[in-house]
Amino acid sequence: MKRTIFSNQLLPWLLLAPQLAITFIFFLWPAAQAIRHSVLRQDAFGINTNFVGLANFRALMNSAQYLNSLQVTVVFAISVTLLSMGFSLLLAVAVDRMIRSTSVYTTLLVWPYAVAPAVAGILWWFIFNPTIGVMPYVLDVVGYNWNHMTSKTDAMILVVIASAWKQISYNFLFFVAGLQSIPASLREAAAIDGAGPVRRFFDITFPLLSPTTFFLMVVNIVYAMFDTFAVIDATTEGGPAQATNILVYKVYFDGFVGQNMGSSAAQSVILMLIVIALTAIQFRYVEKKVAY
């Protein structure tokens, strides 16, 4: 391996400066400000600020609304991860079995990833709108009265579908790449030994996809807990009755709508710690079962 030596010691830092500046301005500085504000409390007019220590965190642990938001986030994150990964794996296997028109099929499936989360939310809101949507009329034919504006279950189903649909394209690309990296000789040998398609998938294909599956599981959980804010805001705004008020949306609502900056900052710190802990647990325990 050839080693590159810079004659000017300042040059490497100049090359890293743009990325370091972006990391500091958009990641480290906001995180530091959130930690600082989480131990402060402002008055109703935002004039006086007092140091309250961990009082904001204790208030959250005793808040029924916050604990409900935590439960909603767990259900939402698991549902989005399972639905988006399961459906994208099914599509990737279908592409892997195709001989012709694979590139066209792949391109069409990747398009939804270019759609902004807010646009995806509005799109599914129109589809499932009880007044003008198509799906409520279809469901009414089979005897189901859909109304995500009043039903907690319908609202959760709507945001899960919209969020998972947005992420399917991303997962699909990685699953296709993972499937194409598996030697065809392994599956051909299993077929010669008499293993059927289902047996070949679960005994050969899926275990060899474990690195890709592990990576996507981490990414999808982080996506569901952070990047789905725009979907929630465009569809249900956390309702009805806090049924879809996930943690990241509650951070926004309490901070920018309720003007409770201390509580909002404390929630953002807890959310950050939860994601860090989940990622660490997955790398510490789940990765042991990954076959590289």
UniProtKB/TrEMBL annotation:
Q: Where in the cell is it found?
A: Cell inner membrane; Cell membrane
Q: Which domain of life is it from?
A: Bacteria
According to the entry, every stretch annotated as the ABC transmembrane type-1 domain falls at 70-282
Q: Which InterPro entries match?
A: MetI-like (IPR000515), MetI-like_sf (IPR035906), UgpAE/MalFG_permease (IPR050809)
Q: Transmembrane region positions?
A: 70-95, 107-127, 155-177, 208-226, 265-286
Query: Quick one: a GO cellular component term?
Result: plasma membrane
Q: How does it assemble?
A: The complex is composed of two ATP-binding proteins (UgpC), two transmembrane proteins (UgpA and UgpE) and a solute-binding protein (UgpB).
* Designated name of the protein: sn-glycerol-3-phosphate transport system permease protein UgpA
Species annotation: Paracoccus siganidrum
> What taxonomic lineage is listed for the species of origin?
Bacteria, Pseudomonadati, Pseudomonadota, Alphaproteobacteria, Rhodobacterales
